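Friendly challenge for the regulars: who can give me the structure tokens for this chain first? No prize, just bragging rights.
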Amino acid sequence: MVAMGQTALSGERLRQTDEFLAEAWADLVRHDERLRGTTVEVRFDRGVAHLTGAVADPAQLRLVRELIGRLSGVLGVWCRVAVGGRAPVVVDLGCGATKQWPGNLGLDIYPAPGVNAVANLAGSLPLRDASVDVFFAVHIVEHLIDFLPLFDECHRVLRPGGVLHVMSPWWRHVNAVADPTHVRLLDVQ
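First reply, four minutes later:
Bragging rights claimed.
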């Protein structure tokens, strides 16, 4: 019974944190002249800022990402923002049937409903140099014996100013050790 109360409280605390972050961002937009006319929409979900919309140039996007990332309580800044009228190219690595956003390009080693191209993430990615704005690597790095070749490939394929978002279970959490397909445990170091 205590665990149920703690879970509900934890969920309520996350909801309140998201509300606080949304208010803090709205206040910052109202008072920071550099953000006047910015059409970036920000939605907070469990401490992660999800950015959509458009900006005129890459410097404006960097400013928005930096300011949001400075807000106390923000755990990550995930971005799908058009720059200079060009929609971003966003790739979900190892997406399976679930992408971070429906319009993303999905790459996975196995075919699935959300996969646009089958690719071995431990090898070369079937993408041109400097052709991607954002990569999502959500719960895949812990499955790779050596993830450095993947990061090298991401570096090759990312445009200047591009972003690689990595999410992995914390090494001390039960989810990190309970999955027998995890070959590597990670921490913030």
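The chain has two domains: 1-85, 89-189. The chain has a mean pLDDT of 87. Your move, everyone else.
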